[in-house]
Amino acid sequence: MEYKLKQGVTVYIEPSDKYKTVLIQYKFRTIFSGKTATERSLVKNMLETNSKQYPSQNEMDLKMASLYGATLHTQSQRFGKQHVVTMSLSVVNDKFIGGDDTLLEEAFAFLEEIIFRPNAEDGKFHEKTFLREKENLNNYFESLIEDKSAYARMRLNQELFAGTDQAYQGIGDASFLEDITAASLFECYEEMIGSNQLDILVSGDVAPERVLNILAGQNFSDRKEIEKEVFCFREKNTEPVISSEAQDINQGKLFFGFSSPVYYMNDHYFAGLVFDGLFGGFPHSKLFQNVREKESLAYSASSGLDFLRGIMTVGTGIEFDKREQVEEIVLAQLKDMQAGDFSDALIAQTKSMLINHYKQNDDYQGRSLAKQYQDILIIENPLSQEQWIAGLNAVTKEQIVAVADKMTLQAIFFLKGEAENE
Fold it and tell me: In this predicted structure, what is the pLDDT of residue 109?
């Protein structure tokens, strides 16, 4: 159920007796850029650390403990062409604790406190907290290189979107950190809470009237609404970009980036899901069976679709000297998909597994709410579970082949050992 509180401020309430907790999310949405994402990642770290009323992490933790173990989670993410900062609080439904029927009101009040009354004075954030969190974020950026698969994926993304803001991660980039001050960050914060599109999502066994009554007491301001358009369409490379980097590692990471016709809920969406499951998404897929199991050319091999930016990524972990063989066999698997070299039995198995995954997601409150938000931003009339399953089951072999035919290699990145470089 959708309710407009102010211009640019909308609340979406999803009453459900499936969960024993109430999940509340405030989502601040704006246009994505690397600089903005970096600043907003630091802002959300500041907000979850302390506030005016709770000036230390310990005091915040004690408050959440008093809310029957409420949990606070924050996220800074790229959502296609847009960037979203999420402040999320999960609290037990007061129906299950007996005697305290104001827990929901207290939870909203706590979330309001940490979002709208930060630890700041004279137009800047608390300096000591700011310096600590800035260093923590920089340390996090530096630590990303330790996860070699994640690093290779990041480098592949940089090649795919070179020269655009999409080349940056959803949390931003360390290169923008140095120029941020406690005062400039507070300006970014004020812009975020005062001007960003604000979507408030509430999931749980709660009466919408109760939620709306609580929110009526919060002082929201009108803000300019931004388009919901999130899809990113990149220009295709005429030839794939090939790059490599050497590090002191024991296992090579060979990653492939393809342009994909599959966007969330477009005409290729359901066929794309089945294609990905057959190609590299499941243990029975071609990449897993032929690259990893049969030929033993890779320790890992899988594919994944980005439904907002129109790309497919294939990631493999390999011996350094197997690079050419792996490249050849990965591309051969795609050619087999384009030739329709997969059985009806495998199609049925893939559809069954996708349906099971879809149903399982509804068992998790956070995943269910994330899907709801994606639907809010992208499609007018979300599909019911029955409609979704019917759409998937209607996929034909010809449609899967049509998706495979439109996959075009755009970039390859190889993270190799230093000995290889020599």
Answer: 97
